[in-house]
């Protein structure tokens, strides 16, 4: 199955731009930049979008402009319009259970309490199976601190580690699109968290 839509989950506006909850959007923006594309706002898709050609494959990018718990609205709108099946979608998001500097690619699964994933699963319906790029942000250590933590800006050291994981993820994305998920996972998961 080919990936046809890559979504970076985010909250909208300048206030949230540098927060941990927006690392999915950081990844999609970097992917666009690497392919000399810029994301443009499309109101009918409730987000910023771009179109890439990766080898012979055509891929659409999306960063929703809705709030995180409504991100599924943008994903469903674009998937419906372009007839993209859930299994052809990659959702990039922040992951509390992975340390900064690491990213993991997986297929299927629940929402793990992530409001963006929760809304996407709800709006795509019928227990949809899609790919997830889980970008590690670490955990504050106390579940009561999670909301504040994800809406905060990471330290400079953490930013470097997260950026390193995003760099590696961007490189592995072309393998995922042009070759297969197993090879992309192997390449991504053997990565060490060096600060570059």
UniProtKB/TrEMBL annotation:
Binding residues annotated for tRNA, in chain numbering: 16, 67, 69, 115
Coiled-coil intervals, chain numbering: none
A cellular-component GO term for this protein: cytoplasm
GO molecular function, one term: peptidyl-tRNA hydrolase activity
Catalytic residue list: 21
Keywords per UniProt: Cytoplasm, Hydrolase, RNA-binding, tRNA-binding
Broad class of the protein's primary localization: cytoplasm
GO biological process: protein quality control for misfolded or incompletely synthesized proteins; rescue of stalled ribosome
EC number: 3.1.1.29
Oligomer and partners: Monomer.
Protein role: Catalyzes the release of premature peptidyl moieties from peptidyl-tRNA molecules trapped in stalled 50S ribosomal subunits, and thus maintains levels of free tRNAs and 50S ribosomes. Hydrolyzes ribosome-free peptidyl-tRNAs (with 1 or more amino acids incorporated), which drop off the ribosome during protein synthesis, or as a result of ribosome stalling.
Similarity comment: family membership: Belongs to the PTH family.
Protein name as annotated: Peptidyl-tRNA hydrolase
Name of the gene encoding the protein in the UniProt record: pth
């Amino acid at each position: 199955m080919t990936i046809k839509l890559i979504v970076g989950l985010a909250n909208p506006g300048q206030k949230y731009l540098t927060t941990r909850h927006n690392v999915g959007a950081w990844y999609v923006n970097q992917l666009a930049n690497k392919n000399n594309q810029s994301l443009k706002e499309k109101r009918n898709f409730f987000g910023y979008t771009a179109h890439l050609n990766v080898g012979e494959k055509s891929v659409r990018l999306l960063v929703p402009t809705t709030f995180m718990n409504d991100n599924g609205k943008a994903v469903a709108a674009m998937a419906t319009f372009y007839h993209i099946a859930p299994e052809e979608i990659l959702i990039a998001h922040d992951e509390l259970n992975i340390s900064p500097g690491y990213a993991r690619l997986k297929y299927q699964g629940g929402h793990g309490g992530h409001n963006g994933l929760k809304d996407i699963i709800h709006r795509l319906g019928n227990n949809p199976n899609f790919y997830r790029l889980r970008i590690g942000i670490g955990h504050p250590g106390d579940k009561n601190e999670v909301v504040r933590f994800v809406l905060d800006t990471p330290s400079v050291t953490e930013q470097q580690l997260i950026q390193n994981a995003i760099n590696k993820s961007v490189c592995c994305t072309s393998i995922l699109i042009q070759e297969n998920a197993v090879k992309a996972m192997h390449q991504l998961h053997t990565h060490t968290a060096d600060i570059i």
